[in-house]
Amino acid sequence: GTLMVSGTLEEPVTFQGDRLESMYEYIPGQWGGMYFINGSQNNKIDYAEIKNAVTGIHLGNLYSEDAPPTLELSN
Prior knowledge:
Helix content: under 10%
Structural class: mainly beta
Strand order of the largest sheet: 1-4-7
Radius of gyration: 14 Å
Order of helices and strands: EEEEEEE
Strand content: 25-35%
Shape: flat
């Protein structure tokens, strides 16, 4: 699959866990993060905030014979 995120400077897209109480606002490790597996191409994330994940972005095996995932980030 392909992920296209189109946030803006004024309205960034936020990815975070589902615990929205103030005591969880800065607690890391609430969710795994985003996984882009081999074969996932043309992913693009514009103006996004990734909060409280174990690791924000995981990319597939870049040394596999399968096509590694591609991801363009911009803010």
